[in-house]
UniProtKB/TrEMBL annotation:
Stated name of the protein: Hydroxyethylthiazole kinase
UniProt cross-references to InterPro entries, sorted A to Z: Hyethyz_kinase (IPR000417), Ribokinase-like (IPR029056)
UniProt record similarity statement: Belongs to the Thz kinase family.
Cofactor(s) required, per the database record: Mg(2+)
GO process terms (BP): thiamine biosynthetic process; thiamine diphosphate biosynthetic process
Amino acid sequence: MELSLLDDIRQQNPVVLNISNFVTVQDVANGINAIGASPIMSEEIAETEEMVGISQAVALNLGAFSEPQVAHILKMGQTANALHKPVIIDPVAVGAVQYRKQVAEELMAQFQVDVIRGNAGEIAALADIAWEAKGIDAGSGSGDLVAIAQAAAQKHHCVVILSGETDIITDGQHVAKVFNGTPLFQLHVGSGDMLSSLVGAFCAVTTDYFEAAQTACLVFAAIGELVANKLEAEQPGTFSVRLMDGLHLTSTDEIQKIARFEVVDA
Ligand SMILES: Nc1ncnc2c1ncn2[C@@H]1O[C@H](COP(=O)(O)OP(=O)(O)O)[C@@H](O)[C@H]1O
Ligand SMILES: Cc1ncsc1CCOP(=O)(O)O
Ligand SMILES: [Mg+2]
């Protein structure tokens, strides 16, 4: 884990370009801003080349796409590839809705994604492994989560983050696990979307996207845990406000002190 990447984000203030969904757009923008990067959102295909040109990473969220937005996402992905900018995709609910899986796979066949970040239901779907996904949530299944994440990474030739109680990060062979976190993340819609775009901020400051993905997971989960530990009860509203403060104020030393992770070589 390279926690110094967090300091690099705060020093460099990289621009992270997002296609967001209307549900969580504000959390995503503020999350990126709070951690020390600079968010920009886009809804107009004509500005794609200029937008990708001024950005250091591109995060594509499939949470509420329409046909015109799919065309926009395609152009963003292809332009990011051409300009060598890292591409992160969040395949919201592809495990629960077959049409979403079809669109996500068609998109990923037309440009190369660097990191996919999803929950177990979403990543199992992209690995073609049986799982009972539930809407935007992970749902339930009995498969080996490490094997599922590795299968998805090998199929799509990229780094995969399978998030949940334990985050599993893999490039298809090597595996990292992050054990920090809090169940309160599940009570705040947008936690996953925020993490996906924060992965963009970390990919903006290194060319090692496996390292960026692991470190983003550790930073986000550890900050959530620190915030939750100070609450007096299960308070999703207070949690989300303090999470934003935590993203801004938490130091690498504070994260280091509570970090629980393992990195296993293949
Ligand atoms: N039960 C849990 N315990 C601790 N952390 C969790 C738990 N579930 C999710 N998280 C954390 O919540 C964040 C969002 O992940 P997740 O809930 O899997 O995404 P999504 O919102 O897309 O389903 C991640 O940082 C993950 O580590
Ligand atoms: C509720 C909802 N519906 C479409 S996108 C979305 C937000 C999903 O956010 P997250 O996966 O981060 O909880
Ligand atoms: Mg999600």
